Amino acid sequence: MTRIGLIINPIAGMGGRVGLKGTDGLAEKARALGAPALSPQKAARALTVLARSLAGTGRAPGEVRLFVPPGDMGETVAASCGFRVQVLDLPRAAVTNGGDTRRAAGQIRSRGVDLLLFAGGDGTARDICAAVGEDQTVMGIPAGVKIHSPVFAQTPEAAGHLAADFIRGNVRQLCLGDVLDIDEAAYRRGRVRTRFYGCLSLPGSGRVQARKAGSEVSETAAQDLIALDYIDAMEKDTVYLIGPGTTTRPVMTRLGLDYSLLGVDVVENRRLVLCDAPEKELLALTRNRSARIFITPIGGQGYLFGRGNHQISPGVIQQTGVENIRVGATMEKIGRLKGQPFLVDTGDPVTDRMFSGYTRVITGYRREMVYPVL
Amino acid sequence: MDLIDRSATVRENFHQAKWDEPIIFELDTPGERGIRVPEAEPEIRAALGQNDLPDALRRKTPPALPEIAQPRVLRHYMRLSQETLGADVNIEIGQGTCTVKYSPKINELLARQPQITALHPLQPEETVQGILEIFYKTDCFLREFSGLDRFTFQPGGGSQGILTMASVVRAYFEEKGEAEQRDEIITTIYSHPSDAAAPAVKGYKIIHIGPDKDGYPDIEAFKAAVGPKTAGFFVANPEDTGVYNPRIREFTGLVHAHGGLCGYDQANANGLLGITRAREAGFDLCFFNLHKSFSTPHGCGGPACGATGATTALEPFLPGPLINKADRAGKAWYCFDRSYRQDKRSIGKVRSWYGVAPVVLKAYAWIMSLGAEGLYEVAKVAVLNNNYLFKKLMEIPCVDAPYIPGRQRVEQVRYTIEKLAADTGVTSGDIQRRMMDFGMHYWTSHHPYHIPEPITLEPTETPSKKDLDEYIETLKHVFREAYETPEVIKTAPHRSVCHQVDASPSDDPERWAVTWRAYLRKTGRGKPGQSPA
Question: Nearest CA to CA, how far is B138 from chain A (Å)?
Answer without folding.
Answer: 29
